Amino acid sequence: MGLREDVAQVLIPADKLQARIAELGREINDAYSDNAPPLLVCVLKGAFMFLADLTRRLDVRHEVDFMEISSYGAGTTSSGVVRILLDLEQNIEGRHVLIVEDIIDSGRTLEYITRNLRTRNPASLRVCTLLSKPARRQIDVPVDWVGLEIPDEFVVGYGLDYAEEYRNLPFIGVLKEEVYRE
Ligand code: IMP
Ligand code: MG
Fold first, then answer.
1. pLDDT for 135-169, tens place per residue?
2. From 48, 79, 103, 128, mutation site for ligand 1 pocket: most ligand atoms within 8 A of C-beta
């Protein structure tokens, strides 16, 4: 049924995603220590699958927490309006925070999150994103780890949605034109 037939092209196959996440895990292990355990902040909903795989690659002690941000409607372009739908459970003051994002497009969402979290006085604030579309950047926000850079195309799968669907696909893909027109 349906979902996979809507995919025009697989941009990043599942094995390539997993190999890159294993590398990111090694780098993040090296960047932190058990004496200063990081708090991974998963930006919902898109980053849930990335967080789940990344956390299993970490040997360093760490905790996870979740934050939900809305920046998109049902379409494929940013509304520019960002707001917090779900806030962190943890107090991050004095903590080493690592933001785990699915994708950086215009940079607006990440700029909002980093500005917001910085006011809570974390000991450090770093960013790891699975994907980045550098061609679309409108606000330059420093990013410590980028999984893969992709061209200016709307992608789905591995947590990323179109109108809340396709998050379950194990790869990153591009949908057929007619899916957006329906
Ligand atoms: P930005 O604020 O424009 O950087 O957009 C960031 C957010 O928009 C991401 O965290 C995603 O949730 C969503 N987004 C951006 N590009 C895509 C895409 O190609 N597919 C699915 N979601 C996307
Ligand atoms: Mg996101």
1. 999 999 999 999 999 999 999 999 999 999 999 99
2. 103
**Residue 179's closest CA among 101, 76, 100, 98?**
76
Q: Does the C-beta of 72 come closer than 6 Å to ligand 1?
A: yes
Q: Residue 47 sits in a domain of what CATH number?
A: 3.40.50.2020
Q: Is the pTM of this model over 0.90?
A: yes
| Interval 84-129: pLDDT, tens | 999 999 999 999 999 999 999 999 999 999 999 999 999 999 999 9
Q: Is the distance from the beta carbon of residue 106 to the nearest atom of ligand 1 less than 6 Å?
A: yes
Domain count, the chain: 1
Pairing of strands 145-149, 63-70: unpaired
Domain membership of residue 161 (yes or no) is: no
Alpha carbon distance 138, 47 (integer Å): 21
Range of the domain at 112: 15-155
At 57, give phi and psi (nearest 5°): -95, -5
